[in-house]
Design a protein that fits this description.
- By secondary structure, the chain is of the alpha+beta class.
- The protein folds into two domains: 145 residues, Regulatory protein AraC (Jelly Rolls, Sandwich), CATH 2.60.120.280; 114 residues, Orthogonal Bundle (Arc Repressor Mutant, subunit A).
- Helix content is 49%, strand content 22%.
- Strands 1, 2, 3, 4, 5, 6, 7 and 8 form an eight-stranded antiparallel β-sheet that branches.
- The mean pLDDT is 90.
- This is AraC family transcriptional regulator.
Length: 266
Amino acid sequence: MYFFPPYITLAHLFHSPADWGIPPRRLSNYQFQYVVDGMAEYEIEGHTIMTRRGDLIYHSPYQLHELRKLPGEPYICLSILFHFGDTEYPLEQLLGENRLLGNFHGQAIEKKLTQLITHYHQPGLTHHSQCQGLLMELLSNLSNWKEERETKTEGQQKIKTKVVLIRNFIAAHYNREITHHELEELSGLSRNYIIIKFRSAFGVTPFEYLSRVRIERAKELALQTKMSISEIACAVGYADVHTFGRMFKNKMGTSLSQFCSSLVTD
């Protein structure tokens, strides 16, 4: 059986204000909500879901839902509303009944969500078609991801959990030296196995990921504070500012000061 393509009624990036929240409501559309940054508590038909950066949830038409921000926490999300006209589409059969679909931070699904938002805000039939195509790709990718997750052995799931644990550990301790031995102790996996599985999951090695985290944090500090380059280098885990400078230029193709100058004008 074939169905009509989805009709996208809203797709946007939303920076929530401090006291924002969604009171209990029902929508006539399906909704995807993807956490870009921060965290919030989502409730769907009485089931509470704590969502964090990278989490993707969905709910079906007319399901009662609400959202509560946490005190002091930011919340930035991608929100997509869509429907299938008068045709009943078996989305629950495709995606399952679990409203938390998974965490896709840094993965291809995150990229497609962002692309969909970008095309939605561009005029013309070409962008409209690309939006619909991206949404159908997302539904297919999510279905495949769900099936792969369900067919994984218990051992594979444990390995994936350990790899995510390593990633989270690196992200939390980026501002100090991290050793392979430390990651081995944390996960119980060998050095080579960690590298293989981490690259398979995230496309980079653990220490390439560490460099990415440090670069992003350095850019934030450079733009949001008055810290010097040497102070920023120390804050992101480099005792030597020259080593930091070489790493940044090697990865970004420009120095940190040049990067800031290209974004900030008088």
